[in-house]
Design a protein that fits this description.
This protein is mainly alpha-helical and 445 residues long. Helices cover 76% and strands 0% of the residues. It has a domain of 214 residues.
Length: 445
């Protein structure tokens, strides 16, 4: 009954989110199933849920609030649009076909997210910095907004979280459990990522063109909408605050909150001439301050729903880990008698479906596989890289906190984005896992 409850709880959460239920309420549904089928103490389960919820919220609240404020400055000043227009002038030439234009637009969104993640910014923060650039590009290309989530999620999770050498939690797991460095197995990692990128771009482009042929186009949602026809700074000039934050955090290893606290006032000072004024203000300065106050306040409020959703999934995971079925599942997979490479992939994929997280699934799989790999002479570098790719397969299930955050910020529902999410961020990583295993088996590591 426990294993059935574990599965039913996860399926119930996925279906509830897909049907439009708030992720927090859906997480409660899952917890109820875990408590009933796992015979858990109700009071202890509730305490565990909110302890995990609070731990997550405490860790990420500052990062998300400051990132949202930073992104809002790029939105209201037109700096994000300026960067997008600069990129479009380089990419969207007159002779470029519509299909290539759409593919190039998706490539920009994916690569921006990828660069931010491997630079240490991470997927939760990277979306705030990418949206001001990516959305205006999608507008110019005419791509429906519902395709923003699959592209941004792919760049952050399918590619950024998997890349060898990146400062991600998954690579930390590899070093902690297997030793070596985060760059071990880089050759196979980047071969797989390059091929997977082409596949994802092909899928997204085909699906987007099909929607565009039906008359669908891009419309801004309420969370992000740059002003039309406003004066804006130069594209290169607009990049400078982003570059400063990136260098402080990714190169000089400053705390991300401190880095953003430098970037926000810098952006205000640099973008001041282009900040809009509040209608009816008595003078320009007070009008800009009033408009800035309302804009930054709105950006803070916009982070509360996605933060709560991600924290709720952490709380649900804490309750799930209390069940005997969860612990029994881990014990069961330890006894599977398979080739080390395939065992790594299967365990990581199974646990990724359960916990909806790359690093968490790797944290479970790697300690199990390491002694098996060592006893059979399998490469630990290969085991690490296989686990990293396999951990990107089901980290975009409907109960993924990161996916729900991306949907909320992009003003999309799970129902409208998930068919594309499935074919663009679950199926390609499954194929990439098989490719990674084959490359490692023939010695390309």
């Amino acid at each position: 009954m426990g294993y059935v409850g574990l599965f039913l709880g996860l399926v119930l959460v996925a279906v509830a989110v897909y049907r439009g239920w708030n992720i927090t309420i859906a997480a409660f549904f899952g917890c109820i199933v875990f408590i009933v089928t796992g015979s858990l103490d109700v009071g202890e389960s509730i305490n565990s849920f909110f302890a995990a919820w609070g731990s997550f919220a405490t860790s990420f609240f500052g990062k998300m609030v400051f990132s949202a404020m930073f992104a809002k400055l790029y939105e209201v000043s037109g700096a994000g649009t300026a960067i997008a227009i600069g990129i479009s002038k380089l990419l969207f030439r007159e002779h470029v076909s519509r299909g290539l234009r759409v593919a190039l637009c998706f490539a920009v969104g994916i690569i921006c997210q990828f660069v931010l993640v491997i630079g240490g910014v991470g997927p939760v923060l990277g979306i705030f910095m990418t949206m001001p650039i990516f959305f205006p590009l999608m507008k110019q290309a005419g791509i429906p907004r519902k395709y923003s989530v699959p592209a941004l999620v792919a760049g952050a999770l399918s590619f950024g979280n998997v890349a060898a050498g990146a400062p991600t939690n998954g690579n930390v797991m590899i070093v902690n459990h297997l030793g070596g460095t985060a760059a071990d197995g880089a050759l196979s990692s980047y071969i797989v990522l390059a091929i997977e990128l082409l596949v994802v771009l092909f899928i997204l482009t085909k699906l987007a063109l099909k929607s565009m042929d039906k008359g669908e186009t891009f419309e801004y949602g309420p969370s992000f909408k740059p002003l039309a026809d406003q004066k804006r700074p130069n594209a290169i000039y607009s990049l400078l605050p982003m570059v400063v934050v990136f260098v402080l955090f990714g190169v000089l290893n400053w705390n991300i909150n401190v880095s953003l606290c430098v970037g926000i006032p810098l952006a205000i000072l640099m973008f001041y001439p282009w900040l809009p004024e509040k209608a009816g203000a008595k003078n320009s300065f007070l009008g800009k301050v009033a408009n800035l106050k309302s804009g930054l306040s709105a950006s803070v409020v916009s982070t509360l729903s996605p933060l709560n959703g991600m924290a709720a999934t952490s709380g649900m995971a804490a309750v799930m880990k209390m069940t005997a079925a969860y612990n029994g599942l881990i014990t069961a997979v330890q006894g599977w008698n398979l080739n080390a490479y395939w065992l790594t992939a299967i365990i990581t994929i199974v646990m990724c479906f359960v916990v909806a997280g790359n690093a968490t699934s790797m944290n479970i799989a790697l300690p199990i596989v390491k002694p098996i790999a060592e006893s059979t002479g399998a490469s630990l570098a290969a085991v690490g890289r296989i686990s990293a790719v396999a951990g990107s397969t089901f980290d975009t299930v409907p109960y993924s906190g990161t996916l729900n955050m991306f949907c909320s910020l992009c003003d999309c529902t799970m129902k409208e984005v998930y068919p594309t999410i499935f074919v663009a961020t679950i199926l390609p990583p499954l194929g990439a896992t098989v490719l990674e295993i084959l490359l490692c088996t023939i010695g390309i590591i």
